[in-house]
Amino acid sequence: MSDISTTETVGWRAWLMTDAPGSRTQARLASLYNGWLSFRSNPMAMAGLVILLGLLFTAAFAPLLAPHDPFYQTLANRLQPPLSDGHLLGTDSLGRDILSRIIYGSRITLQIVFLVAVIAPVAGLLVGTIAGYTGGWLDVILMRITDIFLAFPRLVLALAFVAALGAGIGNAILAISLTAWPPYARIARAETLTIRNSDYISAIRLQGAGPLRIITKHIWPLCISSLIVRVTLDMAGVILAAAGLGFLGLGAQPPSPEWGAMISEGRKFILDHWWVATMPGLAIFTVSLAFNLLGDGLRDVLDPKSGEGS
Amino acid sequence: MSLLDVENLRVTFPTRRGEFEAVRGVSFSLGQERLGIVGESGSGKSMTGRAILRLIRPPGRVEADRMELEGRDLLSMSERDMQRVRGQQISMVMQDPKFSLNPVMRIGAQIIEIYRFHTGASKRAARAKAIEMLEAVSIRDPERVMRAYPHEMSGGMGQRIMIAMMLVTEPKILIADEPTSALDVSVQTQVLQIMDKLVRERGMGLIFISHDLNLVAQFCDRVLIMYAGKIVETCAADKLHEATHPYTRGLLNSLPRLDAPRERLEVLVRDEAWLGETSVSGRQ
Amino acid sequence: MSRLEFEGLNVWFGDGPDRVDAVKGATFEVPSGASFGLVGESGSGKSTILRALVGLARHWSGRMAVAEAPVTGFKRSKAFYKDVQMVFQDPYASLHPRQTVDAVLAETLKLHGIGDVENRIEQLLLDVGLGPKFRFRYPHQLSGGQRQRVAIARALAPEPSVILLDEPTSALDVSVQAEVLNLLVDLRKAHQLTYLMVSHDLAVVGHMCERIAVMQAGEIVEIMSVEDMREMKAAHPYTRQLLQASLGYVGEEMHGGA
Question: Bridge partners of B23?
Fold first, then answer.
C-alpha cells in the first residue's frame, strides 16, 4: 500500500487512532471513536442527534424548564394565542400553558420510545435469529407466526390490543411493541441466513461451538447494527402510532400531556384556535424528523455492508 | 503514432487521514500492441485502467499532464462525449462477467443495444453483427446464446460473451482487467487465444492488467511493472525473466515452480527506498 | 499408519431431480505426517471432500476415518475438532468482522478447554510470524496475508495433528503466497502435522505435497507422486492437460487458431 500522509495527531487522539491497539479496551474504544468520526462528518445526522439530546435534556429538567404547572387550569385564561402574556405558545381550552405541557409531554414520548425500542427489536432478534439459524420446522412455525402479525395493519392491530387490554399509556406501549416486532424478525432472519453460511461461522463450528454460542456471540453482534438503524428509522412511526392512539383516546388519558392526546383535544378548536393542535404537532414532527436523520447517519456508520470506509 | 498517450497520471482519494494516492505519476503510451500492466493488489494497476476511462468515482480525482486518445484530450472532455468514448473507442473487460452483464436481459438484446447505442444501426444489422461477433469468440451456437440469460452461461462462456460485447463496436483500445483470473486454467487459455486473435486481426491496442507475471510474459509484447502506484520497471515481455529491478526479481522468485523444486520459497523483501523512486516512463 | 482414510466416498447436495453428485467414489489415504494434495478445477469436488470430513457437507456415503476411527453422520465430537482443523480459502471471509484477533484466539482456546490463554495467544501469534502488536486489531486493520496467518493461528490453537488446507493462498498476492507457504512448511515440521491440501494450482501443490490426487467432475482420475508429476509422467489425459496448462499460456497453439 502506498503511504498515507497523516495529519498530526496527539495525545488521546493518537491513542485512539492507532493501528496497533495495546489492549482490549483500547481496541474497542478506537473502533467506537472511528465510528464517531464518520458519524460526525454527516451534518444532518448530527442535527438529529442534537435535537434528540435536547429532548433528553428537556425531559430530565422538565420541572425547571416549564414556566407553569402543566395541569393548572384557569378558565379565565383559556385559548390565549401564542406570545400572549406569560404563555409563549398560548394556552389550551382549559387555560393550561401549552409550552409547559409539551415540555412535560416529552417525558411520555421518551418513555414510549424507550420501552418500544427495548421490547420490539429484542423480540424480533430472538425470533429471527433462531428461525434463521436452525431452519427446518422451527423456522417455518416462527415465520408463519410472524406473517400472521404482519398481515394486520399495524394501527388496527394495536387498536384491537388496546381495546382488549384497556386504554392507557402502558397498554398502548405494549400494543405498539406487539405490532412492531415482526419486521425486525424478518430482517434478523434474512441477515442470519447470509451470515450462517459464511466461512467465519463454519470456522467457529469447527472449534466445536454449539448453536447457542454461535447465535448469541457471532450472529447477534452482526444483526444488531442493522436493527439499531431500523429501530431509529421506525421511531418516527412509533411516536406517530402512540400519538394516533392518544388522538383516538386509547392511549394516554387526560389530563396527561401526551402530545397525541393534546392534538386530539385541540381538534375541536382547530379552525378558530389553530395553535392548540399545531404546537404539539410541531413537537411530534421535530422529534420524528430527528430520529429519521439519526437513523440515516447511523446506517452509514453501522451497516457492515457499506464497508469500513477506507 | 500511438493510440493512447498518458503522462504523469495521478489518482487521488481523500481519506480521513489525508490524501491517498493510488496512482502516482504514471506515464506510458500504447500503440497497436499488447501492453501488460502487472503488480500486486494495491499497486494501482486497476486504478490506472479505470482512470483512462475516467471511471473513478468522486471524491476520487484523476489528474494528468496529458491523457490523449489519438491526439484528443480525454481529461477535458464532457461527460457526454466521454460516454461515446467508452465502449466505442475504448472498451473494458472486467474480471467477473457475472457483475458486468445485466442478469435480467437476454444476451442477444444486450449486445444489440450496445451496438445500436454507439452506431445507430438498424435492428436487423445489429442482430447480424451480434451473431457475427459471437461466432468470432468461438461460440458454436450463437442463435441459442443470443436467447439465453447470463446466468445460464458458464464462467468461460460468460467471459467470451463479454469480449464479444466489448468488441462489437470495434473500439481502438481494449482494456482487460484480470479477464481470466476467475476462470479455470484450461478455459483461460481458450479465452486468451480468442482475445489475442481479435486484437491482432483488428489492429487494436490492448492493455492487459494482471497479477500473473508468467501469463503477462507469455501473452503481451511489452510490460509495465507497477508497485505502490508507480511504474518501477518496463521491459519487453519476452525479456521479463531478465528483469533487473529487485521488486520484479522478488516477484518472479517467489513463485513456486513445478520444474524447479525448492525447499523454501524466496520471500520478497520490500525496500522502503522503492517508495521514493520516481516512476519509470513507459512511453515509446 | 494412515491418519486419514477415504473409501468409496460419495457426497451429494439436494434431493431427487435436483441432486448434484459432488464427489463420486473417492478413495485415498493420507499417512501420518504426510502432506497430500487434491487438485482439480472449480466444481471438481476437491473442497467438498474436506467439508464432508469436518461435517460441513451433510449428505455422504462410504467410509471416512481419522486415525482408524470412522466418522459418522455430520456431527463431530470435540475430540475430533481438537485433532482435525481447517484453514479456509478466503481470509477476508473466514474472520468475524467484529472480533479482534485476540477475541478469535481466546474463544477458540476456551472452546477447547485450554487454559493459560494470555501466554498461549502470544505464543500462537509468534508461531505464525505476527508480533504481539497485532493482537488487538480487527480484521479490517490487517492485510490479506496477515489475516490468513490469524486463520492459521486459529487452526493451530487446539494443537491438532491434522490440518485441512482449502486453497489457503489462492486469494493472496504471489509474494504473500510465498510467505504463507513457507510458514505452512515450517509449522508442519515443527508440530509434526499431517496436511490435506486442496488447490487448483499444480505448482503450489507440487511445492507443498508428496502425493497428489487429480480430480475431475467429482472423481479422482489419478493419484501420483509429486516426482512423477514433475517429470510429466501422468497416465491420465486430463492430468496431462492440467500440467500443460499450468506451464503457462501456450502461444504457439494460438497461431494455429482456436
Answer: B11
